[in-house]
Amino acid sequence: MTQQERQRIAAGLAVGLSYAEIARRLGRPTSTISREVARNGGPGGYRPQQAHQATVQRAQRGTPAPPRGGGVPSGAMEEEIIELAVRSGMPRMTARVHVDLLLSEDGRRTAAELTRRLKVSPASVSVAVNFLVQQGYVRRERDPLRRRDIYVVDDDAWYRSVVISSRQTLESARAALAAAETLGLDTPVGQRLAKVGTFLERVTGDLTESADRWRDLLA
User: Where in this chain does the record put each HTH marR-type domain (predicted)?
Assistant: First the structure.
């Protein structure tokens, strides 16, 4: 990778571009960008000049690059998972917190641990975990001895998140059906809303039934 490409990576990170978008602009695989950033300070500490110098020094020492078939470094793997979550619509800070919990040994972290590990403010962690709890991805436990909250990702989190998402979609479906009734089913807008509401209602029902049917897989 050239020094100019590294400068473009830094510029892209500075304006909040995703790894996928940076990779597209450079004509590189997304995994190449995520590995480059992960081994050179991460998204918050990437410096193109330092990254280039480190690469030159490794080459001079004859240090081989990680083998293509030898697996993805853990830092790069985390960044790829975060990138997938961001592309699905999750805020990046929230995705970082979620992935750190997912990849922890027992799926448990305190707010202080998350703040220290991710090197972010307590307020940022608070906003992220509140979102994750509301969406069912994480549950909150109280440690009565130390009087602190512990955030937990357990196996049932996936079931809870599906149910909560389905419930929210069902509310939208019912709102669309109610609006269709109000506007009149004989009007173009009413007919459109009725179709949307019915579609979402049926799909949500199927998804909830499927989650209930396969929940035992998480036990």
Answer: 103-148
